[in-house]
Design goal:
- The protein has about 260 residues and is α+β, with helices and mostly antiparallel strands.
- It contains 6 helices and 7 strands; from the N terminus they run ββββααβββαααα.
- A 7-stranded antiparallel β-sheet has the order 1-2-3-4-7-6-5, with helices on both faces.
- The C terminus is likely disordered.
């Protein structure tokens, strides 16, 4: 089974004495091929080229010095050699006999640490440089195609979004119109029902006044007769009854003289 790998390419600038203030200098290109527990580096400045083969055994030894597993060591190296990290100090110094030493710094637990790898001159500088340029050209082509694809996808999504927006506005307008029509119809039906109820109530009120039951009529007549009798009685003189009653009492009451003689 073929081991998975990834490729990166980093452009680094190292200032010359005349370019110290600007921070710009002769660039180098560092192409990295990353595996799970080892990696390879190909470096060129456009004229000369170097390479670094970090074997599994060597990576394992370096990782053990930092109390790291080999896979974590490779991931951290890829992070700093795949993309230039702000705050990290990169260097590509002479190591004698045409060798170079690539180094970079990073912070860990409040300490600034430095990793260094020795690079050997390439046996075929032209081929190494051409391989790096081919990788950059292929990557540029892939990125251009991706940009074109993303642009087309964006335009398509933009058109779809405009259609959805127009449809949403149309549905909203139709909803407002529908609610307005329903409200007008409901208001008409409600007013019609109210008018019908008032009409029925008026009819019931008229029927109640025009048609009364015989019992209600007799009750009214009886009440009228009793009221007249009471009025008739009230017209008589009350003193008349009082006088006649007094006379009757006197006529029936025995005299005191007769009662004494009987005794």
């Amino acid at each position: 089974m073929e081991e998975t790998k990834k490729h990166t390419c980093l452009k680094l600038h190292f200032p010359n004495n005349s370019d110290i203030n600007s921070g710009e200098g002769e660039p180098i290109f560092v192409k990295g091929t990353w595996f799970h527990s080892h990696f390879d580096l190909a470096i060129t400045d456009g004229i000369n080229a170097w390479h670094c083969h970090a074997s599994e055994e060597e990576v394992k030894q370096r990782a053990a010095q930092w109390d790291q597993p080999a896979s974590e060591y490779v991931m951290l190296a890829e992070r700093y050699l795949g993309f230039q990290q702000p705050g990290s100090v990169y260097a590509f110094d002479d190591a004698g006999d045409g060798h170079k030493r690539l180094s970079w710094t990073f912070d860990k637990e409040g300490m600034t640490l430095q990793w260094r790898w020795k690079c050997m001159p390439s046996s075929n500088c032209k081929k190494t440089t051409a391989d790096i340029l081919d990788f950059l050209m292929d990557a540029n082509t892939t990125l251009s195609e991706e940009v074109v694809r993303k642009t087309k996808l964006y335009e398509k999504m933009k058109v779809e979004a405009e259609k959805c927006l127009a449809q949403s506005e149309r549905i909203a307008n139709e909803r407002v119109e529908f609610e307005s029509e329903i409200y007008v119809k409901f208001l008409g039906v409600l007013n019609s029902k109210k008018a019908k109820l008032r009409e029925l109530r008026d009819q019931l009120s008229k029927q109640g006044n025009a048609e009364k039951s015989p019992q209600e009529e007799d009750t009214e007549k009886t009440e009228s007769f009793d009221e007249e009798s009471d009025d008739d009685k009230s017209d008589e003189d009350p003193l008349k009854y009082v006088t006649s009653s007094s006379k009757d009492v006197r006529a029936n009451k025995p005299s005191r003289a007769k009662r004494s003689r009987h005794t």
